[in-house]
Write the structure tokens for this entry.
Amino acid sequence: MEGSRGLSRSYEGLLFSGFVGPEEASSIHVGEPVECFRRGLLYSVYICAGPGGFVAVKDYRVSSLKWIPAFIAAAPTVRYRRDPKLRALSELYYSRLLRMVVNTPRILSAHLWERGALTVREYVPGVSVLDSRDPRAWRMAGKALARIHSEGYALGDANPGNFIVSGSSITLVDMEQARPSDPTSIAWDIITVIAYTHLTRAKGTYLNELIETYVGEGAPTREAIRELGKLKYWTPYLLMPHKIVEALKITANLNR
């Protein structure tokens, strides 16, 4: 493949070194010709279609932009990975590790170069929880997050949009900020679930379904609940102070 070299087998899929674009990377798996599209300028995932079907291609250079405000908000609590290659390698590692806990797509190939990284993964059809108007989907996400935390992991970026629901199945599709859990990372996951939902103006009743299911599954730990009482976790609400009272009411449900 022109522009790529050093083919080897990684922990999850094929590993290449050298610059490559979404079309070229996806053509390995779906053939040519390939057409790729993404939903907007800040979306890092392309959906690519070829004669062999669909794949999802993630360009970690694109998502570097969105991590600037996230890094500032999280600085008092968790350290986000910003380097594209580190995030891609984390995705490779945790996509397989977390598969023992929740459904994750298989990464088919990764492409790393000096200033960037790109992965090609299985395409997951369905609706993101954040876009869903089905309370059942939000309950499924709450159960999945509780399992992840109970098994000793945290997501770092617990955006409900990173869970895709199709029928009775739910799949986690973003693991670039995943890590071993501790009270701090669990508390940050909880805040980011709530804050992402408020930022996108998803209905609060659905969010309550997620939190109530999460608590019903035996999460979070008492230590994480105590952490949530600290001011440093609430930096995302500097952007939407009018939502702080609602967010506090939702977290109060964690003490049941």
Q: What stands out?
A: The two ends are 56 Å apart (CA to CA). The domain at 8-122 is CATH 3.30.200.20 (Phosphorylase Kinase; domain 1). The longest strand covers residues 53-59. The helical segments are 22-30, 67-74, 84-97, 135-150, 183-199, 204-216, 222-228, 244-252.
